[in-house]
Design brief:
With 153 residues, the chain is mainly alpha-helical. The protein contains five helices and two strands, in the order H-H-E-E-H-H-H. It has a two-stranded antiparallel ribbon. A hairpin with a 2-residue loop joins strand 1 and strand 2.
């Protein structure tokens, strides 16, 4: 009886796996970068910091729930973008590319935690980790291909 239950369970599990729709990359790598990663990274980087101009100092930080939620939303999108960059059809390789995409995912998740905690200093610090993750990938994959595409934030 137990063998039948195990066999039946295995067959049901196998059928469920086959019934699942396959995951397929629809957007190009460039579309994910330009429509998800870049604008949402800019939200994070623009959310905290100090701007010095002649005779003036501006302290930037989220002050309202809406502003904090914008940082949370952008960091959520960046976290998931890290996963999207690992999908077949977008991933450049199975080694360093995956490490770089995981670094993006982990840095963005850390920003998300800081934003949820409403911790300005942690958003600033972890935004630096996010910058490092982005630049690491750019230096290895983007700038190597076309050094004239360097974009500073």
């Amino acid at each position: 009886m137990q063998k039948r239950i195990c066999l039946l369970s295995s067959l049901l599990l196998l059928a469920a796996c086959k019934a699942s729709p396959p995951i397929k990359a629809v957007s190009t790598l460039e579309e994910v970068m330009h429509h998800m990663v870049i604008p949402n990274a800019d939200v994070v980087w623009d959310s905290v910091g100090t701007i010095y101009t002649v005779g003036h100092v501006e302290e930037r930080q989220p002050r309202t729930d809406e502003e904090w939620l914008a940082v949370e939303a952008s960091s959520t999108i960046l976290t998931e973008a890290g996963n999207l960059l690992m999908m077949e059809g977008r991933a450049k390789d199975n080694g360093p590319w995956m490490d770089r995409a995981r670094a993006l995912r982990e840095a963005a998740a850390a920003v998300h935690q800081a934003a949820k905690a409403r911790d300005v200093a942690a958003v600033f610090e972890r935004g630096g980790y996010l910058f490092d993750a982005c630049q690491g990938c750019h230096f290895q994959y983007r700038f190597e291909k076309d050094p004239n595409t360097i974009r500073s934030h």
